[in-house]
Amino acid sequence: MEAPGSRSEPPPNPEYSGSYVVSRPVYSELAFQQQCERRLQERRTLRERLAKSCSCSRKRALGVLKTLLPILDWLPKYRIKEWLLSDIISGVSTGLVGTLQGPFPVVSLMVGSVVLSLAPDENFFILSSNGTASNATMIDNVARDAARVLIASTLTLLVGIIQLVFGCLQIGFIVRYLADPLVGGFTTAAAFQVLVSQLKIILNVSTKNYNGVLSIIYTLVEIFQNIGNTNLADFIAGLLTIIICMAVKELNDRFKHKIPVPIPIEVIVTIIATAISYGANLEKNYNAGIVKYIPRGFLPPALPPVNLFSKMLAASFSIAVVAYAIAVSVGKVYAIKYDYSIDGNQEFIAFGISNIFSGFFSCFVATTALSRTAVQESTGGKTQVAGIISAGIVMIAIVALGKLLEPLQKSVLAAVVIANLKGMFMQVCDIPRLWRQNKIDAVIWVFTCIMSIILGLDLGLLSGLVFGLLTVVLRVQFPSWNGLGSILSTDIYKSTKNYKNIEEPEGMKILRFSSPIFYGNVDVFKKCIKSTVGFDAIRVYNKRLKALRKIQKLIKKGQLRARKNGIISDAGSSNNAFEPDEDIEDPEELDIPTKEIEIQVDWNSEIPVKVNVPKVPIHSLVLDCAAVSFLDVVGVRSLRVIVKEFQRIDVNVYFASLQDHVIEKLEKCGFFNDNRKDIFFLTVHDAVLHVQHQVKSQEIQDSILETISLIQDHKDPLELMEAELTEEELNVEDEAMRRLAT
Amino acid sequence: MEAPGSRSEPPPNPEYSGSYVVSRPVYSELAFQQQCERRLQERRTLRERLAKSCSCSRKRALGVLKTLLPILDWLPKYRIKEWLLSDIISGVSTGLVGTLQGPFPVVSLMVGSVVLSLAPDENFFILSSNGTASNATMIDNVARDAARVLIASTLTLLVGIIQLVFGCLQIGFIVRYLADPLVGGFTTAAAFQVLVSQLKIILNVSTKNYNGVLSIIYTLVEIFQNIGNTNLADFIAGLLTIIICMAVKELNDRFKHKIPVPIPIEVIVTIIATAISYGANLEKNYNAGIVKYIPRGFLPPALPPVNLFSKMLAASFSIAVVAYAIAVSVGKVYAIKYDYSIDGNQEFIAFGISNIFSGFFSCFVATTALSRTAVQESTGGKTQVAGIISAGIVMIAIVALGKLLEPLQKSVLAAVVIANLKGMFMQVCDIPRLWRQNKIDAVIWVFTCIMSIILGLDLGLLSGLVFGLLTVVLRVQFPSWNGLGSILSTDIYKSTKNYKNIEEPEGMKILRFSSPIFYGNVDVFKKCIKSTVGFDAIRVYNKRLKALRKIQKLIKKGQLRARKNGIISDAGSSNNAFEPDEDIEDPEELDIPTKEIEIQVDWNSEIPVKVNVPKVPIHSLVLDCAAVSFLDVVGVRSLRVIVKEFQRIDVNVYFASLQDHVIEKLEKCGFFNDNRKDIFFLTVHDAVLHVQHQVKSQEIQDSILETISLIQDHKDPLELMEAELTEEELNVEDEAMRRLAT
């Protein structure tokens, strides 16, 4: 037995062809029979299963209830002795971290931008009763904040509704479209937005609240225009905070294996800054911007103003998807660690219900923070009980400690936020690697980033999403394709461009097209074929028709004589069937040649008329369809047309390596109405062997002299003469569009 | 030599494996070398070509000019004697047809809807000076029509600009996205819109000019509400016209081979109706709605009001694409017939410039009518001279004949339009066929139709376009996949589901995934793998870790003893390593087993602890990637993770039939940093043979007794012990998203 690499081609004896057909059946038919049997079998199994399942339907109903309300599942099983203590410890720790660490979630920023756009400062100017402040306008802080809370809670309600709908529609998979490059670009843009919004606070420079397209740029410009008004006390406090925070964070990071807990520098800085501001009375002495008033107590439940929904729809959509995607990405980490699986749609429903509920209690959109989750897990949290306890701790902290923070400079808080942005901005360094690995991914990154800066985060994310989808379509539309040849004398076919020692079988072209064939890329597919075979089948056919007409004319005029073994020119060089370069035709020339005289011409030899008929050096075209993963109606029609166009000029088209479902589609769309199934082969090599065998057996039958011959006694019209009919059929392509042109 | 169908597998001798590797090289490296050489060669060729081309650059400049302004090409070559006469005949015929036949272009309708929305009747009410008409409001017809003409010409200008931009950006290919199902649905919706708009005229019932979403439905409702106000004279005239026109058209169609020219029934009906209306003075006697006033003369050029652009952007985009697509689809018919090729982008530029120019002369958006084109061609038109002549004829007709049509009832004109809609509505019959052939295409049809009715034609077309693109993405995202086995003892691998007599090689699973692997479908890909192999690799690994820990504990406690040839339970059935059903873990249990005692367990035999470790019945997984047409960064990373996950549980992953550019992408994205290239094979069969050979040679070395053994003197840490490191690496997946969760 020889190695497969050195398999030589089998001798072309007729038995071979026969045994080949038997051992490799035309597989679609076989597949169909087998599928039918299999389906029957499946139905039988299903029926048996159904019979069994009826008995346990009650059990299942309880299961469904537990799935919808997981608390019914875990609370009755709660092991108080084992779990309660660790839940309490974990809850308290998480609560403290939540209070101390000022985290920066993207969702806050997105909600913030909506709130600012719907309730800008300008809406809350009040007339100052005393005329002292000439330029400074007074803002009704209380009314403004109340309006903003209302907007935020309306947003929460809408986000909840969207999430619930998504969950019920089972479209949790859309999160997959938030690909890493898109998220990278989006996050960097978010960091930039945060930077600008905090910069204004650090400098204590007031600007208008710009919104919509390019608002971030306008804000930046205005900040620099008013940079002269910078409050030095705020600026210095902010700058110091940034430097200290970043330095300590760097140390935390570098020595993370040596120190037990990272230094909570944000908390330390905040406490010190509050003390300084209070001691030095920075507000009075330096006009510094301080926190000033933290409202306490809780708002009663209220129905948010639903009429705002239409204004915040795009933003809500973005927020709903982003909040959910963050939560699921964190959840997956623990799902892997503790070996359970996450049901994306269940999560969507859970977040949806939770947000709808909190929408009535002036709450913020819910999502997940990795750091807090990590604390809860590492301190031994077992169940949601820990979550309830940590929420309680945060609540106490807000109520009790809020008052103490009132003298704190706002610029210090802003600086803490900025100090945390470093990681986000460092993502820019990913771009060169991405560009090297996959240019399209890099483009998605940059596009999403720029769009999120220009259009705002919500519209930016949406446009990034759509752009990402378009790149998928484009990648499918402009696929790679190769002309193939066989490696030495093996059955392996590889690109003639990328490999040396490739031989194309004589008189054949093999094309591999690496993409589905559908309405978007049929033109590309046709171009690939044209470029592979080296000529345009329609053009060749038209030129041949033209030449035929001229030959007929010349024969009628007596300038040419037709013999059994060819056409002989009488007039020599003086024949006037000269084709002008600027080729505008007589309408009567376009008539199909009459059937009075029918001629068979060997188109690859010299023709007695000077029509420039392109040579067709091949007799077969093999399409390797292994990578054609689906077809649509337009794709099937194109394949039919292509087969016909090539048949008209005596080139046979064969298909190799089609997948079963693709063949099924061809069957459904009527491909086999005008094509036989024996043009399909299991592999390219099978097709090539078949063609080579065909050619050899033909050569024995035909003599070359006979091919250039005039068959005046030919009774059946030649295939070439059916042009009118075929033309009409070939034109079905843009039928729908032409119908618009009445 | 035997037929390839019956090739038996080669005997697994060691030489075979060697020769195999040599004869089928790891092809990416070979490909790269060859590509480099080829590129050098190409550069050389390019340089030579450049050197040659300098000499003919002047000739080329002229060529470019002629491409931009084709008239420079054909006018100097105009053969007056031969062509002028037929051009004149053709021009006159086309002009007459254009005048007589009231054609119905979709573009008119689209323009009309924009005009109506921006200049509704309501804007032009005037106070009636006499109090006679109590309910009827007067409309300033002249002002309204002037405003509407201005809007139409502004639209023409904007459409021209869009087309020019599209042409310059070379994105003529977007027309391909107007697939036939989409156009079918769109046209039917357009017909419906026309029907409703004309119905109102036939009944002579006035309604408000609704616009935007659902306007067509509102209009329809109002028509039926006011149906009592129907003007009987108009209704009867309209109904008669419809019946007559449709009947005669049916006859025309049925006897088209017997009659020389179709009966121009529209012209005949129009003339008769005008005469009757004039003779019977229908306006006065029956209050019929007549044409009344046709303005004559030409408007001077003027700059259209550019400030309207923003309001008509979406509509202009749709109109620009539709007008262009119609023209190109007609053009293609003649391109095929006369053997020239159409440059889509050139057409875009031509239409763009033409529309921009006409925008200043109160003109309508230009497109192509198939019927007029057919007349021009069949009557012998040779050049654009015929076009100029036919335009002249139409102009004369408008100026001269307009006045004569003023007594005509509007309902007759409306009826003529409706009689021409039949073909459009008949397209509904395509749906069942489409559904049978390709469900997605049918859904696109219906979706586009409904959207175009609900949202209006412009937004409907856009949403249909986007929907079509989404279906492409979904088709790529949810691809077909199959577990494979070989047909009897051949090298052909087919789906185990669809075929009988398929045998899966022992201890192996083969998966064929028919789609690119990219961010949108990596989850689907993983599910396919899980479903093919029948277990979850991560879960298996975690359960094994857990069992290992329990075995270690038991060994420490002395309840288990480890021997060279296995682990022996001392305590028998009383061992307490029982795994509870409700399985919540102690945090300390999750520690990685210490390296003090290292154990090698045969996971497929009985384990002495009661941990439910899923059995892994395979040693190899082969991924058939023939249909993976591209990968992105996320896809490559998933492949890396999958290989690692399976390696941890001693399953080797092999790749077969990858395309060259896919291997290149793997190389670029660092796949080979942690994977050797010898897991890649040219075909599935090669991979299977390789694995089978490996297994056989291993079986000779290993004795089964040795596999269940404790290797206390083992020095190197086992692969299983590297879990911590691997876990971190495996978690890189949603990194970008988790970064948002700070």
Automatic annotation (TrEMBL), chains A, B:
- The STAS domain, residue ranges: 498-691
Which keywords describe this protein according to UniProt? Answer: Membrane, Transmembrane, Transmembrane helix
Q: Which InterPro entries match?
A: SLC26A/SulP_dom, SLC26A/SulP_fam, STAS_dom, STAS_dom_sf
Biological process (GO) annotations held by this record are: transmembrane transport
Q: How does it sit in the membrane?
A: Multi-pass membrane protein
- Its main subcellular localisation, reduced to a broad class, is membrane
* Transmembrane segments annotated in the record for this chain: 149-175, 181-203, 210-227, 233-251, 263-280, 313-336, 348-371, 383-401, 442-470
Any one annotated GO CC term: membrane
Q: Among its keywords, does the record have RNA-binding?
A: no
Q: Does the keyword Transmembrane apply?
A: yes
UniProt-annotated location(s): Membrane
Q: Cross-referenced PANTHER family, in alphabetical order?
A: SULFATE TRANSPORTER
Official protein name in the record: Pendrin isoform X2
| Organism of origin | Phyllostomus discolor (pale spear-nosed bat)
Q: What is the lineage of its organism?
A: Eukaryota, Metazoa, Chordata, Craniata, Vertebrata
